[in-house]
Every structure is written in structure tokens, then in C-alpha cells.
Amino acid sequence: MSRLPKGLKSGRESWAVPPGLRWFFPSYPALKRGAKLARPCRGWILEHGGLLRVSLLYGSLLCCLILLIAAWLTAQQGPPTATIGPAPVQIAPPRPNYPFPDGRSYVYSAEWHLITAGTGVVRMDTAGNERKVTASAESSGAVNVIFPVHDRFESHFDPRTFCSLSIFKHSEEGSHKRETSIHFDYASKKSTLDEKNLKTGETKHVENDLAGCATDVITGFYYLQSLPLQLGASYEFPISDGKTTIVHASVDKREQIKVPVGTFPAVMLTVEATSGPLQSKGKVWVWYSEDSSHTPVQMRVKLGWGTLLFRLQRIEK
Fold first, then answer.
1. Using one digit for the tens of pLDDT, what is the confidence trace for 199-216?
2. How many angstroms separate the CA atoms of 287 and 164, rounded?
3. How far is 143 from 59, CA to CA, in rounded Å?
4. Contact assessment for residue 40 and residue 53, using Cβ atoms and an 8 Å cutoff
5. CA 239, CA 155: separation in Å to the nearest integer?
């Protein structure tokens, strides 16, 4: 039986982040924990099979489905306070009588090189005069054995404006557990972040300036869904997860997309940050069905180290 590398007590210890990934991890420190075996354990991991290596390095990336893409779009970590200038772009309110996709759960698989790392679910519901978006990420298979991920995300926004009102996250990633809440106060132009480490009891309080109406990392995909998405169109809008990033999205082409739930005529959008710490760091492609529902049937995120694919498995009502 092969021994672990010197200094490694278990398959969940010893930190070393590959250089190509270092820019990515400040936004979501839990992702860093999932890559800790990439270098010090290389020989041991390769000896025990490529699947184990993939599981350790990419398992916790599931927490960004959405929770994926979410990490790419915003950078939450930083100094206790930060100031941003006036937002150069604005959120467009939904058209009159827009049919929000209430009561539908989009269920996605998260894949890397045909290996399924887990499942993500996104859903919208009414909540009084607000709309509530919930998302979850659950690891599966070898990933769940080596680095389990069980994350929950909830966002409330104003359906008249698409402005996000609050965000709540419950994250369980490996041995780490934390809860984060973010509130947007547009009257005082401030966002407030409160975070608690559920294991140690340590808390954090951060306030950031808020230039104006912004959507959040998950609701942003619903915001795009509400737009006309005509071929050749482009959109810019602010996304906030405590700090604000300007995102550019362009409708680049039409394609037939085959996913487990079916085959769809779709339009492909290219999404990338145009300002902030994540500018020019990666791209996200989203395929929306070309019918009136604009169902997000597939998502692909490309980073310096590789590509993750999210495919729609089914729609639950």
C-alpha cells in the first residue's frame, strides 16, 4: 500500500495552489481548499488514478454553480471597506407583464472532461412583493467522498426593478462551515456583509459603497433570461456580491444544443467582467433556448486551468 507524501496526514491536508489558479481563489476561499493537493500530492494522486486528482482539484468548484460561475463574476474578499465610483451601466427593469419563471427548478450536472462532479439546482419563487431565488450545490461520486460540498444560496430581489435586496449563503465544504448574509441599502448606498464561521464562531462585518441598483451572482442569469437576446445584441450591467463588478454579455450566435432534458434551438451568450479584479480573467458562455421562455440549457466557464460544463438535466415544477 502506497504511503502519503511526507508531511501529509490525510487526503484533505497540505495547501498548495497551482499558480494558474491563484487569481481565482480570493473570491471564494473554500475553492482553495479543494485544490490543496494539486502539487504536494501530485505523485501520490497520479499513482492512485486520475479521477482522484480531478476530484480533489475540482470538487469544491461545484460550490459555485452556479456556484461556479458565481465565483468568477464577483470578488467578495478585500479590505474592511471599499469605495467604487458611479456605475457606468444600469439594470433594466423587466418589461410590463414579464412572466417570471416562478416555481421552476432547473437541475444541472457539473462536468469536467465527462466526469460528473455533482448537481446544482436553481429555482425562483414569489415571496410576497419580492421574488426569491434559491440555489444549491451537492457533490457526488468520488468528489463527495473526498471533498463533500453542500451549499445553499438564497437571494431576494425587487421584481419591478431586478435590484437585489439581500443574499444568504450556507456553505459546507469539506470540514469548513460558514454562513454569510449580505443586505443592500440603496437609500444609504451601502451593502453590508456579515459572515460567521460555524465551526469556530468567528464573525466578520464588512461594509461597501453601493453605486446603484445591482443584481447578484445567481439572479444575474435570470436577469439575462428576461432580456430580448436578439442576435448581435450586447448588454452591460452591475453584479454585486458585496462588491460590484461590471459584466458585459453579447449574443453571439444561434446553435442547436442537445442536453439530457432535450434538444433546443438556442442563442449563445458570451459573458465576461469588464471592470474590477476579475477583468480579463476568464469567460462564461450561456445557452438560452430561443423560444419565449429563454431557458438556460447549458453553461460553460473557461479559466486558465480548464473548462467546466453545466448541462440541464431536467426542469421540475
1. 999 999 999 999 899 999
2. 23
3. 5
4. no
5. 13
